[in-house]
Task: inverse folding
């Protein structure tokens, strides 16, 4: 897997900057017509949790999948911003003392450390709610049928049958609801857990472009297969980083998974077989794109990027 | 204010039973097509938090306001169920140790006591997310423009500019973010706080019928005025119950507001003036309904019911 080309990196960074600007505007101190007011402390905490960080991989996948159908970037960025609100809310709740109890995220204090637990809970609730406010707006797409399809798919990717359910399964696997000892999960259970916890939002990002672009059934199917493969690849790459990564580059401790007895595909298959599985996911992702021909060059590079990332 | 008539009580109880049945069906152990699976523990906690209790006043207001426009109850009940998911999620998060730290709700252990903090946080997040899943469905209304309008209004009523923002203001008024001492709020600040924390969802319930029924501008305006008045009446009645209520009937301790130094309209205006304000709200609510003539009999009784409730 070669490292990403300059053009790819420029596109990724451009999209991150666009997402940042859009979230900054949406989360301004100016209530919408149907709001009463936006309390300063809560707005500050929402901004703290959602601005100033991250590669914005999920918005990038939305924008690039929408580009296949020549959707205006102003529209696809709205959907990307909504998705990022969901991603950021989940990080705030996962970091809480009652969940993973983390003090640092991307080198900064986590939201409940920077504010307090109550403010963090409410800021995350508000980001989750705000995602659906964003999707409901005319700016996201002129056709209400398309906006409501985005609402449905995002709600399902984020809820009990997706991300939130996956986090519950992850806590259960750590033994949090019984004896405190990690349970040995088999390969199938690990795949289900990860496809819910991290895969569902990445999958949504990839199919969102097809929804925005009124893609044909075959094209939607292709994006769905691409999204599934990207989700698995992302998680294997993450698990490999925990085993082989450099703590300094990564900005967080490595070796945590093995130490905590956490079930990962790398732990079950071993590093070599996991690397092979990762390469196969990239192949599958790229093969799914064949229906789009040359138009999918950036999404094809994105599959390599996800697999080869170093932090 | 006379007590509610038999017919009114029958309608209210009938709607509560319908809402219960619908939530029970929506929260069944059967993933939707776009979900992976519904983990048992999380689904149990969502059901625990949303089934088996309450007068279901909010769904009732949705159904009765929709009745003005002859909307099929199967449709308005879906919106009522979505709203109830939002209401129930907010109770779970408000009860957490990091927020109000309550062990009992309606005579049962709160969700984090019955399960644990992590499960309660995730179950509430999942209920919040599920509300938008429900609104996105064809069953809620065949016209996607109407579904997306419901998404927008519910997101705004529940988010930073509504309920979640109001909860933050309430914690701030208790001095939670500084010295721990309650702050003296003026009448205007109390009205804003309450109109966000409890008023916004009640207001949504009343305008939802107009959205579902494609009401004319004047009719929507009337429902909005009715909804505002109902929201204020509900809160004054609640505050009066805390001063004058019977703990046994109420199922919770009384006198808590004064003991905690909480700012309420009853505390600011005194009991007599608060009673007068409450009566005026009922008049305003009923006056707003005049445009609907006799069709609004049940909503008119609902205004009296909200003001006269004993628990």
Result:
């Amino acid at each position: 897997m070669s490292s990403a080309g300059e053009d790819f990196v420029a596109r990724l960074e451009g999209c991150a900057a666009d997402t940042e600007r859009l979230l900054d505007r949406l989360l301004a101190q100016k209530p919408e017509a149907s709001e009463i007011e936006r309390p300063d402390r809560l707005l500050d905490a929402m901004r703290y949790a959602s601005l100033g960080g991250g590669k914005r991989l999920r918005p990038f996948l939305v924008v690039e999948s929408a580009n296949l159908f020549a959707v205006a970037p102003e529209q696809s960025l709205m959907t990307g911003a909504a998705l990022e609100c969901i991603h950021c809310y989940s990080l705030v709740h996962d970091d809480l003392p009652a969940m993973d109890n983390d003090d640092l995220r991307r080198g900064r204090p986590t939201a409940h450390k920077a504010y307090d637990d109550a403010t963090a809970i409410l800021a995350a609730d508000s980001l989750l709610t705000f995602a659906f406010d964003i999707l409901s707006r005319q700016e996201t797409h002129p056709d209400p049928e398309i906006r409501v399809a985005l609402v449905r798919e995002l709600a399902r990717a984020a809820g009990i049958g997706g991300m939130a359910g996956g986090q519950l399964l992850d806590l259960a696997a750590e033994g949090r609801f019984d004896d405190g000892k990690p349970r040995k999960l088999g390969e199938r259970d690990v795949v289900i857990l990860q496809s819910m916890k991290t895969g569902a939002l990445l999958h949504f990002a990839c199919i969102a472009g097809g929804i925005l672009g009124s893609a044909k059934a075959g094209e939607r199917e292709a994006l769905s297969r691409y999204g599934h493969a990207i989700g698995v690849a992302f998680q294997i790459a993450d698990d490999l980083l925990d085993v082989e990564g450099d703590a300094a580059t990564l900005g967080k401790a490595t070796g945590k998974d093995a130490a905590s007895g956490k079930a990962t595909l790398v732990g079950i298959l071993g590093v070599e077989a996991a690397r092979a599985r990762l390469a196969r996911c990239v192949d599958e992702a790229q093969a799914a794109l064949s229906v789009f021909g040359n138009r999918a060059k950036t999404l094809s590079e994105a599959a390599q990027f996800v697999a080869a990332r170093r932090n």
Observations:
- Chain A touches chain B through 63 residues (CB under 8 Å).
- Chain A has one domain: 6-308.
